[in-house]
């Protein structure tokens, strides 16, 4: 394993996760487990439960920014989280989040992550519609903001190649 000096906390967090995996620890896993291990092993410096949760959130934010190029050249997010409902022996249900690597995840993990992220998109759209409806009903300027929620054209547009490739002049 090649050790590299991290440039920033995001790189440090991604390195901590890679070390966790390289040591054969549980994967997919929950971020609090990595955070606790990082704290106990001296890889991170926090001391109490609140700070452990803060570190877990920071690691999650860093994992959301880890990308790779797939075989087709697409920029793909490498780590994905998904919710799992667990039940304690007393019957208490709790939602926990596990992280997986897109290159090694099983289909059920990816399916759960896709469903979770799609739900987040819907929640954001519902809140945006509520905000715009409220503005339209209550703004003093009497202006109405139009909101289209069919995002298929926007998605298609963003999927287009952004590299300029001029057509070579025809040969004479």
UniProtKB/TrEMBL annotation:
Domain of life: Bacteria
Official protein name in the record: Uncharacterized protein
Organism per entry: Gimesia algae
């Amino acid at each position: 394993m090649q050790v590299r000096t991290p440039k920033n906390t995001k790189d440090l967090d991604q390195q901590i996760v890679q070390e966790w995996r390289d040591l054969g620890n549980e994967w997919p896993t929950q971020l609090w487990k990595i955070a606790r291990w990082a704290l106990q092993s001296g890889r991170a410096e926090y001391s109490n439960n609140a700070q452990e949760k803060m570190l877990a959130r920071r690691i999650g934010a860093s994992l959301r920014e880890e990308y790779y190029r797939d075989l087709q050249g697409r920029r793909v997010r490498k780590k994905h989280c998904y919710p799992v409902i667990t039940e304690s022996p007393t019957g208490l249900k709790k939602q926990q989040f596990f992280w997986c690597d897109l290159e090694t995840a099983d289909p059920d993990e990816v399916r759960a992550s896709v469903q979770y992220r799609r739900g987040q998109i819907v929640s954001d759209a519902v809140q945006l519609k509520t905000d715009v409806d409220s503005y339209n009903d209550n703004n003093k300027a009497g202006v109405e903001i139009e909101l289209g929620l069919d995002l298929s054209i926007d998605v298609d547009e963003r999927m287009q190649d952004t590299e300029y490739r001029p057509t070579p002049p025809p040969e004479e």
